[in-house]
């Protein structure tokens, strides 16, 4: 079963450490084929934009790379069986929220993981943004408060 991981964890050094050192190995133990969006676009293309000096050429290169990243991620979501969304933060990451909505529109089952104890909901009736939570639950998926709980649920698929 192919599982796309929607997550902002690749943006920071600490996030990458947790993502690659703890999260991905735990999910692989659930017998899932992990589709890692952070690996879909060659790093040298991202560096080709990041290494340019500030100015119009850099902006244009980022636009090209951004479109490639977005296309790669959309195609990977279309081809996956399920989507796992990392919901930590004071608010769900906007890219993760978009991926959740896209997966829901494609009738994919979505699982959420929120190990963050801070409040992040629209009101006391939800765990995270009410629309994100709705898409996850309406897909037949669930939101889990620990990685152990999430991996246990994934093993039953």
Automatic annotation (TrEMBL):
Q: Which domain of life is it from?
A: Bacteria
Q: Which residues form a coiled coil?
A: none
Keywords attached to this Swiss-Prot or TrEMBL record, sorted alphabetically, are: Transferase
- Name the InterPro entries on file: 2'-dNMP_N-hydrolase, Nucleoside_deoxyribTrfase
User: What Gene Ontology terms describe what this protein does at the molecular function level?
Assistant: 5-hydroxymethyl-dUMP N-hydrolase activity; transferase activity
GO terms for biological process, alphabetical? deoxyribonucleoside monophosphate catabolic process
* The protein's name: Nucleoside 2-deoxyribosyltransferase
- Which source organism? Desulfurispirillum indicum (strain ATCC BAA-1389 / DSM 22839 / S5)
The top of its lineage is: Bacteria, Pseudomonadati, Chrysiogenota, Chrysiogenia, Chrysiogenales
């Amino acid at each position: 079963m192919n599982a796309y991981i929607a997550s902002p964890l690749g943006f920071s050094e600490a996030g990458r450490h947790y993502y690659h050192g703890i999260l991905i190995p735990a999910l692989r133990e659930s017998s899932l084929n992990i589709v890692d969006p952070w690996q879909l676009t060659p790093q040298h293309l991202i560096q080709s934009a990041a290494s340019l000096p500030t100015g119009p050429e850099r902006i244009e290169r980022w636009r090209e790379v951004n479109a490639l990243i977005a296309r790669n991620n959309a195609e990977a979501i279309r081809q996956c069986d399920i989507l796992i969304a990392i919901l930590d933060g004071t608010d769900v990451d906007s890219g993760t929220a978009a991926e959740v909505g896209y997966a829901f529109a494609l009738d994919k089952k979505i699982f959420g993981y929120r190990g963050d104890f801070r409040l992040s909901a629209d009101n006391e009736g939800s765990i995270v943004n009410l629309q994100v939570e709705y898409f996850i639950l309406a897909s037949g998926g669930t939101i889990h408060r620990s990685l152990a709980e999430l991996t246990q649920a994934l093993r039953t698929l």
